[in-house]
Specification:
mainly alpha; Serine Threonine Protein Phosphatase 5, Tetratricopeptide repeat; 5 helices
């Protein structure tokens, strides 16, 4: 509940900033974010579009940052998958080691020597 009231307070502040300087693209962008957080996506989209029109490089910068975030998510997902496969392989290897030791034991060496 506290976050919602803080978000409403932020909306009010950004609207005041825009009333003072309607071409303040950052205020429009921040207002957009706050509105979307509050579930007012249509109004939020409107202010995002205004921010993009006031500062055109912003749209490309945001799409680049979204791409970076997607790439980070993909990399994290691949890392989790690799860890899962590694753990599974280690578990299999661990089970095999208990059945078939990788290193011959001293007792096994003695038995092999007795056979000769």
């Amino acid at each position: 509940m506290a976050n919602v009231s803080k978000m409403h307070e932020a909306v009010s502040c950004f609207k005041k900033a825009i009333s003072v300087d309607p071409k303040h693209w950052a205020a429009h962008l921040n207002l957009s974010t706050a509105l979307v957080e509050l579930g007012m996506t249509i109004e939020g989209q409107k202010h995002q579009d205004i921010a993009f029109s006031l500062y055109p490089p912003l749209k490309e910068m945001m799409s680049d940052s979204n791409l970076v975030a997607q790439q980070e998510d993909t990399a994290q997902q691949r890392m989790r998958e690799a860890k899962r496969k590694l753990l599974t392989e280690e578990e299999r290897q661990g089970k095999l080691d208990t059945v078939i030791p990788l290193e011959p034991s001293a007792d096994a060496s003695k038995q092999d020597n007795n056979k000769e």
